[in-house]
Amino acid sequence: MTQAVADVHVKGLSGSDAYLRLIVNDRLTALVPMVDAQQVMVVAPDQLTVMPNMPGLVMGLLNYRNRVVWVIDLGQLLGLDPLSSDCPYYTVALIRLSEKTARCCR
Q1: Which pLDDT value is given to residue 5?
Q2: pLDDT tens column, 74-87
Q3: How many angstroms separate the CA atoms of 17 and 52, rounded?
Q4: Residue 52 maps to which CATH number?
Q5: How many domains does the chain have?
Q6: Contact 17, 37 (CB under 8 A)
Q7: Does 12 map to a domain?
Q8: Is residue 106 part of a domain?
Q9: Has this prediction a pTM greater than 0.90?
Q10: Would 31 be classed as within a structural domain?
């Protein structure tokens, strides 16, 4: 299961930047700049609205402050095993995709 841990003072490439550390499994960690991280929360599976005919990595939709956001399985997106469907809760990190990030990922 992916868990999120906030590291406030992680030294980055350009000095002392802050990152959100996402521990995907015991051998894989992802870092997201804190300026792109909006919220980390724990949600029950019944809080997600499952959408039909979507790829398996799309877990569903979540209502967050009257906005609808897609929830994806980060591990599965990266080619790892999918999360167990019988988890009592999921740790969800809301990440804002900025124009700068979108440009570098095209």
Answers
A1: 47
A2: 989 989 988 887 88
A3: 40
A4: 2.40.50
A5: 1
A6: no
A7: yes
A8: no
A9: no
A10: yes
